[in-house]
Amino acid sequence: MKSGIYCLFYGLLTLLMFFTAACTSKKDTSQPRTMLVGTDAAYAPFESEGPNKELKGFDIEILTAIAAKEGIPIKFINTPWEGLFTQLVNGDRDILISAITINEARKQQMDFSSPYFEAVQLIVVPMKSKVQKMEDLKGLKVGVQTGTTGDDVVSALLGKTNANIKRFEGTPLAIKELENGGVDAVVADNGVINNFIANNKVSFKIVSDKSFSKENYGIAVKKGNVELLGKINKGLEAIKADGTYQRIYNGYFEGKK
């Protein structure tokens, strides 16, 4: 009888272990996959690296808040701008957030979220410069970040292959060249320009031009990924509604952080 009880006990224990293992296994496979996020961390205040290579910035906080709302596991990966879009198209990245202006050419390659930030181009010149508008850049050496909308507007004015267009990996490098006298002006997004001028001891003036159109930044996903894009848009709407977006925005652009 005792032997029979032990057999029954161990039999039940074995069944319990089997079902526990089965449930554990099912739980593991149901976990959502971590989405790999590409961002070029050379565009403060939108994205940059901290002293320990950690990624920080407005874009990083915005997407982190969206992902938390929607339960999307994410991992940011510092990805150079030149290969950023290709990484998404090839499937090596699931999401891109990197102060990416939504335009028709890019919409042919990827799908964008609802706009999350409005930007405009600005011109940076030395204090004694006579430049007062975009047209005044003709005949001058102009620095831009390669492949950006700043590059686009200067190329449209001077010609894409004009030798006077000096292209750099990042806007800070272009401004450094302006400081060294290698270029006469730099054209880039207002957020980056204003942040650089505010945080560096440089003596430049900023020129705006009415011909510059307003631009909208979007979060990009691989073309056709409707489910992921829907979650991002839902999360973006939620953080705008509960005040999270405004709090983050104020911290970076209103000096209230």
TrEMBL record:
InterPro entries given in the database record: Iontro_rcpt_C, Solute-binding_3/MltF_N
Recorded hits in Pfam families, A to Z, give: SBP_bac_3
Q: Where is the signal peptide?
A: 1-22
Keyword Signal recorded: yes
Q: Which CDD domains match?
A: PBP2_Arg_Lys_His (cd13624)
Question: Residue ranges of the Solute-binding protein family 3/N-terminal domain?
Answer: 34-256
Q: Which domain of life is it from?
A: Bacteria
| Keyword Signal attributed | yes
Please provide the record's keywords in A-Z order.
Signal
Q: In what residue span(s) does the Ionotropic glutamate receptor C-terminal domain sit?
A: 34-255
**Protein name from the UniProt record:** Basic amino acid ABC transporter substrate-binding protein
Give the species this sequence originates from: Bdellovibrio svalbardensis
Q: What is the lineage of its organism?
A: Bacteria, Pseudomonadati, Bdellovibrionota, Bdellovibrionia, Bdellovibrionales
